[in-house]
Amino acid sequence: MGKEKLIVALDVDSLDKALALVDKLAPHVGMFKVGMELFNAEGPQAVRAIRERGGKVFLDLKMHDIPTTVAKAARVLTRHGASIINLHAGGGLAMMQAAAQAVEEEAGALGIECPLVIAVTVLTSMDQSAMNNQLNIPGTVEEQVVHWAKLAQQAGLQGVVASPLEIESIRAACGHDFSIVTPGIRPAGVKKDDQHRIMTPAKAIERGASYLVVGRPITAADNPVDAARSIVEEITRVSGGVK
Ligand code: C5P
Fold first, then answer.
1. How far does residue 11's CA lie from ligand 1's centre (Å)?
2. What was the pLDDT predicted at 241?
3. Mean pLDDT over residues 57-86, rounded?
4. Which of 76, 167, 221, 225 has the most beta carbons within 10 angstroms of its beta carbon?
5. Are 113 and 107 contacting, i.e. CB atoms less than 8 angstroms apart?
6. Domain range summary for the chain, segments of one domain joined by +
7. Mean pLDDT over each residue of the chain, to the nearest integer
8. Model confidence pLDDT, tens digit, residues 137-152
9. Best of 33, 213, 216, 219 to mutate for ligand 1, by most ligand atoms within 8 A of CB?
10. Which residues' Cβ are closer than 6 Å to ligand 1?
11. Would the pLDDT of 12 be above 90?
12. Which atom of ligand 1 is nearest to the CA of 124?
């Protein structure tokens, strides 16, 4: 179903604000993204409260540390009941492998569904000049994104977060069983806000996105439920109504 592919970004700083959105949107969307702002303000109770209301949670905490530390943190996030967690591919193969293994073990021990562990590649706020000159990484952003996506797959991760413009090259390199979670989505005629490289929901799904992350076009809409439903309709239309 189209709604399973829609993740709403809860970019708010309090549980009250988050739950006001969750109460309205839970029946209409597939998942809620809890980022550093909400998690650092409210902690694990944010995840629990969303799950109690029937919502699934993508914990967007972008971990990056030594393998043991990330593995232990990933284990704890699995206990909170997140459906997706993420880390920076720049942390390297060993870090990603340790996290993937810890999550699988912990989910197995708890008898729960294993969360997807996905990698952040090159941040979309980073352009080629900053990547080449500040990070001292040569080549194009796209080459680096594909390189890190393949490394994440080699480490046993199930997908990446990527800009809509990178979907096709990641799909070509990593195949169809690899999840691509795509922000920067704007339905036709909706404000761009501070996003530069945007795509409509239909185009992103057609190019091969597995999940769309949408924030302000839904959360700041006059009627968030209508906004979510219209995006779900658009996704369902191009998915052929199958998934
Ligand atoms: O409101 P909007 O739809 O722009 O929100 C997009 C969400 O996706 C935000 O939570 C933003 O931090 C996140 N994101 C992004 N671009 C990335 C990674 C994450 O917009 N490359």
1. 9
2. 47
3. 98
4. 167
5. yes
6. 2-239
7. 96
8. 999 999 999 999 999 9
9. 213
10. 9, 11, 35, 123-124, 161, 163, 183-184, 193, 195, 213-217
11. yes
12. 21
Average pLDDT over residues 15-30: 98
For 95, the token pair is 């870090």
Q: Which two tokens stand for residue 101?
A: 């293994």
Q: What is the mean pLDDT of residues 83-96?
A: 98
Distance 216 CA to ligand 1 centre (A): 9
Assigned architecture for domain 2-239: Alpha-Beta Barrel (3.20)
pLDDT for residue 240: 67
Owner of token pair 């997807």: 116
Question: Computed from CA positions of residues 42, 45, 46, 47, in that sequence, does the dihedral angle turn out positive or negative?
Answer: positive
At 238, the amino acid letter reads V
pLDDT of 196 = 82
Asked if residues 187 and 179 have their Cβ atoms less than 8 Å apart, the reply is: no
Of 199, 217, 211, nearest to 239 by C-alpha is 211
Residue 126: CB atoms within 10 A of its CB come to 15
Backbone angles phi, psi at 224, to 5 degrees: -60, -35
Q: What is the pLDDT of residue 243?
A: 43
**Residues known to be catalytic:** 62
DSSP secondary structure code for residue 13 in this structure? S
| Structure confidence at residue 242 (pLDDT) | 45
Burial bucket for residue 109 (CB in 10 Å: 0-12, 13-18, 19+): exposed
